[in-house]
Design goal:
Blueprint lengths: L1 H5 L6 H18 L30 H11 L8 E5 L5 H9 L4 E6 L2 H10 L5 E5 L12 E7 L8 H11 E14 L3 H9 L4 E7 L1 H22 L5 H8 L5 H8 L2 E9 L1
Parallel strand pairs: 1-2, 1-4, 2-3, 4-5
Antiparallel strand pairs: 5-7, 6-7
Helix pairs in contact: 2-5, 3-4, 8-9
The structure holds S-adenosylmethionine.
Length: 266
């Protein structure tokens, strides 16, 4: 009922911004679980991609692999890295420890998510700050790599976000991004990326990889939901988390939605 009432507003920029802010502030406040550190749907690597086995085995292996294979697309060692939409910080903590950038800043719109990430991740070269993708609080030409994982679908203006990424990146810097869209919204995203003033070096349809990750993680995810989420919210949360059978999972399978990975350079 509430969903139906709200759906006419979903295309408005102000609604998208408000929706993202309320949702992610609420989640970090009400489910501040230390061991729920990733909020992406996960990535199951292709056979030809070098396999990794992180030790100890992470609770959310496939969401971590989403970061690993995206972060592998550019040199991070010794670099200044900004992540936009870092959420609970699991991906930032992994990339900052594994690839050894000089400095990794995770930025998120939700202050509660930033506070939670600063509390649960103690990595020397890593910090989390509050800020908006549409107004990045960093100087021009100051960042080597911008990372963006499953976040920009929620922004009021992706065009403004891309101009902010370009402004903050040093010449030659990389923009690494993964996200999903409804099929009918893919042409708009493609146009925005191609008109961003950055070069599109690589573009992969990773929908099948995300479907496989959702399936591989499903049992563990359902168990975590039962353990961490109060019973009255479990059904709603399972939809949000994209369990097998959820609308998101069905949409990826029936071609209604796509999940893409992009490598761009300023
Ligand atoms: C699906 S979560 C993904 C979080 C994280 N990247 C991960 O994979 O675990 C999307 C994140 O984007 C953040 N976000 C949404 N709109 C934003 C904006 N305009 N600026 C910065 N962060 C934003 C949300 O607060 C949320 O933490």
């Amino acid at each position: 009922m509430i969903k139906t009432l709200l759906s006419p507003f979903k295309r408005f920029a102000w609604f998208k911004r408000l929706n993202a802010k309320i949702t992610y502030e609420w989640l970090a406040r009400h489910i501040p679980a230390n061991d729920w550190q990733f909020m992406n749907y996960g990535y199951y690597p292709n056979a030809e991609e070098p396999a990794i086995q992180p030790e100890p085995k992470p609770l959310q292996l496939y969401p971590l692999l989403m970061y690993h294979y995206l972060g592998s697309k550019a040199e991070l060692a010794g670099k200044v890295v900004l992540e936009v939409g870092s959420g609970r910080g699991g991906g930032a903590a992994y990339l900052a420890s594994h690839f050894k950038p000089a400095q990794y800043t995770g930025m998120d719109l939700a202050q509660h998510a930033v506070d939670l990430a600063n509390k649960i991740h103690a990595v020397p070269n890593l910090k989390f700050i509050q800020g908006s993708a549409e107004n990045i609080p960093l100087p021009d030409n100051s960042v080597d790599v911008v990372i963006n994982v499953e976040s920009c679908h929620a922004y009021g203006s992706v065009k403004k976000f891309l101009s902010e990424v370009k402004r903050a990146l040093k010449p030659g810097g990389y923009f690494l991004m993964v996200d999903f869209r409804y099929a009918q919204d893919m042409p708009e995203l493609n146009t925005l990326l191609r008109e961003s003033g950055m070069s599109l070096l690589q573009e992969d349809n990773i929908t099948a990889n995300v479907v496989k990750a959702i399936e591989a993680e499903d049992e563990a995810k359902q168990k975590r939901i039962r353990e961490l989420v109060p019973p009255k919210w479990q059904k709603l949360f399972a939809e949000f988390a994209g369990v097998v059978g959820s609308k998101f999972y069905r949409n990826l399978n029936d071609g209604t939605r796509f999940y893409y990975r992009y490598v761009m350079q300023k």
